[in-house]
Amino acid sequence: MRSPKRRGGRQKIKKGSMSRIPVRLNVLMGIVILMLVALGWRLVNLQITDSAKYKTEVTSSESSIEKTTVQRGLIYDSTGKVLVTNKGSQAITYTKPRTITDKGMYNIANQVGSYLKLDDDEQISTANFAMYYIQSTKRAKAVAKASGTQAAPGTDQYVDDLTNYVEEHKKQFTLTDQQLNKAKIFQKMSNAYALSTVYLKENDVTQEEIANIGERQSKMPGVRVGIYYTRDYPGGQDIKSLIGATSTSKSGLPSDSVNELLTKGYARDDIVGTSYLEKQYEDTLKGSKGRVKVTTNKDGKTTEEKLYAGQAGGNLNLTINNKFQEDVEQILRDNIPGGNTTGAYAVVLNPKTGGVYASSGINRDASTGALTSDALSTVNQANVVGSVVKPATITTGFMNNVITPQNSVLTDQPIRVAGTSPKTSWWNQNGSGNMPLTADKALMMSSNTYVMQVMLKLGGLNYYEGMSLAPLSTNVFQTMRDGFSRFGLGVKTGIDLPGEITGLRGKTTRADIGKALDESFGQYDTYTTMQLAQYAATIANGGYRIRPHIVESITSRNNKNREVTTTIPTEVMGTVNWNAAQRQMIWDGMNEVVHSSSSYATGTGLKDVKPAVSAKTGTAETFTNGQSTVTSSLISFVPNSDVALAVVVPGVDQSSENVNQKIGKAIYAAYWKDVQHSTANDK
Length: 683
Description:
One of its GO terms (biological process) is cell wall organization. The protein is α+β, with helices and mostly antiparallel strands.
């Protein structure tokens, strides 16, 4: 039998098919080789043959974007009077190019130094002296010989060896006065960052210097004639105690915020706000820097193209009335007692809007009697303030339902509890004057023992002679503080000024439970004058805690160069939430403080003030310089009007404890003359 035929088997390979594959590969490989040869040849031309040509082209027209300074925003008072403006003076500036060598700066500094003389008090560091000194080839060779360096000229090691030697043997190397002047200019240039602008000279630049530099600045890359702005105070510099200060080109950016400011695009010698309003509103006041495109050709000549003219900073329009501010400060100066008194502080504001009319402070050196203006002490200095807190204590009793306007009678009597010395009201030292008091009468007579009994009720206890405070929970401290904070006591007011403090809170451990008695009438925690003013305003406006503010509005310009005014809105930070009867009892009590015919009324020194005022006085016992003193305090307002005030005078001898009313009376007179009269005239 025949075997079946295989269908498969080797296929026949067409002739020439294998021979065509190597040909294709060869062609491809040939093309690749030719391309590599061409690329290699091009690289040789770029890196060797044409290297100098292209380096010249790169450096022949280097351009950079530089920033120019603009005027800082102005500051006006509530009447439109300018308080802070800018004074411009011509200056010589230097903007460091993106790439420049020490030798290049040396040459520019020498050119500039031939026409610009810096102040003699300008100092130069040893390191910069050494770096300038060795830029001269002749001097460098002499230093190299003296130092014995083996490093090759032009290397980093060579420079390090020479500068180190000059620094260590500076007395051996001298410069002429003219060379030293140029070295100081070199120092300012070298200390600049790439593309940042520094002032080579900003004060007392002569017209001759300006002319000489101006006509040659195209040959001095980065050097130009500019403007240096400083703050100017047309009405005097006393307002700086409230508005604050700015840095200078010499002082540079504040050390505590230099890194943050540099990341925001500031130069090291830019002017920035360093305190108070200038610092708080820095972003508004600084404006936007201009931008200039500077192109430098191969000959070192520069041309400029203005890309953006810049935008001056926004203007601040304050709630402060400058005349009133000055008068309040003078009132404090004229009435501050001597002895151990450490200061006098006052704040006057609008209880409806929170706008501050005046915030004045005088610090007194008790040893010398020297007085210093310190307006910000109203927010960064706290004192025990005494009985002015009693309206808040009584309101806290109302809010916690331990007393009511209809049932508020408590007997003023010496408070004698176990382990604590007797505590009394000023007019009932031995108990012979015991009498029942309603809440409003307790305010009028400034009864200490009334509010102490309210505090005990807040802790769930009723007073009886000889009682123990052991059952009294320490939570009573927090209950009182929560009530006080409704008015702004013991918490930040939120005013638009940096550095505000809350004051100190005393300890609240079981061992300190007796201090709860002191807390109830203002003898324990401390409060700022601004807190007292916010407290007075909260009572005056019916129970709304308004954020105080010094800036009323901000005026700036938009892209179409039109003025745009942003008004600071009235902000309610919280409410007391009392009812009409509770509020009226507090108002009645504060009215009686001033206008009652009782000999016990504590604020009758204000009864002649017109329009009539309501008030609460305070006298906190303190020790100053080892002597028994008091803090004389006052909160007050004109019912249904736009004014409330607070006064604090710490360290007063008891014979001068009524200075609070004397100051308050004078402030009201100034307010109606300066603020309301000027407002009426404006209308």
